[in-house]
């Protein structure tokens, strides 16, 4: 299965570490953070990888060369939301299923393997958290996904979308149909909601959670917990 890594963002909440470095390449324990995700993907059997780049895009060829990785680099020329980002990789994925991972997230090898599902369904990667209001909450009825609420003010449950999805080519017509969100972006959950309405979305719960490098305070958390997610 092909893999798309979203790594085009500026990482403003990680400044000053991202003043001259893309967020995904911020150094953690002596190596760029993306190194650990790439290694885990390869250990999980994923080797057809595309990285969507934008901010400080010139840093990525050097990263790939330094660590002996192979990946196709595609530039997201404008950052207009996560759905817009996915639209850039249409010609890379073609009609194939693919795994979408955010470049600031790290998952264990076993959880990455669990997302390798070669069927016609879209899979959200779900996990349980203490503060669901910070995330996209997955609304369930039994085993069925019936909706996603982005950072809800009301309590809908503590099962949230964890920043990794298995997508099919059916996502692209949905992206073409969505409108700009109140935040002024083309949001991927809006496209996913169309597939939910068609009964084509399932959830795969990750067992090991994830490491999220979102802001400066996360750096120490990631460093302290890295060994739980990555073994060299």
Give the number of DSSP strands: 13
Strand order of the largest sheet: 5-4-1-6-11-8-12
Globally, the shape reads globular
Classification by helices and strands: alpha/beta
What is the percentage of strand-forming residues? 25-35%
Note poorly predicted spans: none
Number of helices: 8
Computed CA radius of gyration, to the nearest angstrom: 17 Å
- The helix/strand series, from N terminus to C terminus, equals EEEHEHEHHEEHEEEEHHEEH
Overview of this protein structure:
By secondary structure, the protein is α/β, with parallel strands linked by helices. The protein has one domain (2-228): Spore Coat Polysaccharide Biosynthesis Protein SpsA, Chain A. It has 8 helices and 13 strands. It has helices at 33-43, 59-67, 82-87, 90-93, 109-114, 171-177, 188-197, 218-225, and strands at 2-7, 27-28, 31-32, 48-53, 72-75, 98-102, 105-106, 122-128, 136-141, 144-150, 159-167, 201-205, 211-212. The strands form 4 sheets. The protein has a 7-stranded mixed β-sheet. Strands 2-3 form a two-stranded antiparallel ribbon. A hairpin with a 2-residue loop joins strand 9 (136-141) and strand 10 (144-150). Helix 6 crosses helix 7. The two termini are 23 Å apart. The mean pLDDT is 88.
């Amino acid at each position: 299965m092909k893999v798309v890594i979203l790594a085009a963002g500026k990482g403003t909440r990680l400044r000053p570490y991202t003043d001259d470095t893309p967020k995904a390449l911020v150094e953690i324990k002596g190596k760029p953070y993306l190194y650990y995700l790439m290694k885990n993907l390869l250990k999980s059997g994923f080797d057809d990888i595309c990285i969507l780049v934008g901010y400080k895009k010139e840093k990525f060829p050097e990263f790939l060369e330094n660590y002996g990785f192979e990946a196709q680099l595609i530039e997201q020329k404008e950052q207009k939301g996560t759905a817009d980002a996915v639209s850039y990789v249409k010609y890379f994925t073609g009609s194939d299923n693919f795994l979408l991972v955010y470049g600031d997230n790290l998952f264990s090898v076993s959880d990455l393997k669990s997302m390798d599902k070669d069927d016609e369904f879209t899979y959200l990667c779900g996990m349980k958290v203490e503060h669901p209001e910070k995330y996209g909450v997955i609304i369930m009825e039994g085993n069925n996904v019936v909706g996603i609420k982005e950072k809800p003010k009301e309590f809908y449950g503590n099962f949230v979308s964890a920043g990794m999805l298995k997508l099919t080519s059916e996502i692209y017509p949905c992206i073409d149909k969505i409108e700009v969100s109140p935040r002024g972006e083309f949001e991927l959950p809006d496209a996913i909601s169309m597939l939910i309405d068609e009964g084509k979305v399932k959830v795969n719960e990750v067992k090991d959670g994830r490491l999220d490098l979102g802001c400066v305070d996360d750096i120490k958390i990631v460093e302290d917990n890295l060994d739980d997610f990555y073994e060299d």
